[in-house]
Amino acid sequence: MDKGTYYMHALARLGDHNDIAGSDEHAACEMFAQHAIAVCLDYTRWTWATIATTLTLTNGTAQLPPDCLRLQTTSLPTYQIHGRTIHAEGATTAIITYVSSTFIDTVSLPDYEPTFCEACILMLAAMMAPRLTNNLNLAEKLKQEAYARLHAAKVKDARISDSNDQTPEL
């Protein structure tokens, strides 16, 4: 889902608002869009947002990939992270898995995960509601709906990734 569609759907949740460049609505979308996606990505370990790679350590250090939002696992028995550098004494390579920030950086959502997209739309609408509608009850309601969708997306992701069934969604 592209940025414009994401904004349009979130504003529709707040009533009759349009995403017009320079408007308060557009400014609110720009202000909260990346944060809403980040909150949704932080909800759980999404298999589709996880990347595995091998790092080569020089003198026991290596830079984390530029799109590394959060380190999930590593093959290193002991390590420390300082800023964006991983330190592991005596190691020459490390296999890591991490959550990629690609969706946040590009303000785009994975079309193949519609429940997650819906959660991001609801989260963005919840974040914008106090600013655009002055309705805190609406903001709270939208936030609760977003977390309900995130839970549904998490269950679906777990069923698909942890199933040995050929058609896990049936």
Task: Write out the strand line-up for the largest beta sheet, numbering strands in chain order.
Answer: 1-6-3
Mind describing the biggest β-sheet?
3 strands, antiparallel
- What is the chains' assembly state? single chain
Question: What spatial form do the alpha-carbon principal axes imply?
Answer: elongated
Percent in helix: 40-55%
Compute the CA-based radius of gyration. Answer: 19 Å
Question: How big a fraction of the residues is strand?
Answer: 15-25%
Summed up, what is this model?
The protein is of the alpha+beta class. The protein has 5 helices and 6 strands.
Can you walk me through this structure?
- The chain has 170 residues and is of the alpha+beta class.
- Helices cover 47% and strands 18% of the residues.
- The chain has 5 helices and 6 strands; from the N terminus they run H-H-E-E-E-E-E-E-H-H-H.
- A 3-stranded antiparallel beta sheet has the order 1-6-3, with no helix packed on it.
- Helix 1 (3-12) crosses helix 4 (114-133).
- The protein is elongated and about 60 Å long.
